[in-house]
Design brief:
Blueprint lengths: L17 E6 L8 E7 L6 E6 L4 E2 L4 E4 L5 E6 L9 E7 L8
Antiparallel strand pairs: 1-6, 2-3, 2-7, 4-5, 5-6
């Protein structure tokens, strides 16, 4: 499995876009990049995932570099409700979860 590294913390301004980087330089060709977040005292919450192409949903955008060795989660308009621990995870297989 690919190892991921992320900053331990980030400062942001409310209402501004926040870019959260993740390095996964040992990623394999069929491994997906997943982002989850965990708000204090709650369980993990799915944010977004991608394989090779950039992805966007109602919550965030995921930008994946061409070599797939790093990615960036973009929260377009951060609010206090977005305060959480964000996890970047690389997984070999894609599971179709029902959200």
């Amino acid at each position: 499995d690919a190892k991921t590294t992320q900053p331990t913390s980030m400062d942001c301004a409310e209402g501004r876009a926040v870019n959260l980087p993740c390095n996964h330089s040992t990623i394999g060709g069929n491994e997906y990049i997943y982002w989850y977040r965990q708000i204090h005292s709650q369980g993990p919450q799915y944010v977004i995932h991608g394989l090779k192409n950039n992805e966007t949903n109602a919550m965030a955008s995921l930008i994946i570099t061409e070599d797939r060795k790093s990615s960036t989660l973009i929260l377009p308009h951060a609010t206090l409700r977005d305060t959480a621990v964000y996890y970047c995870i690389v997984r070999f297989c894609h599971v179709n979860w029902i959200y």
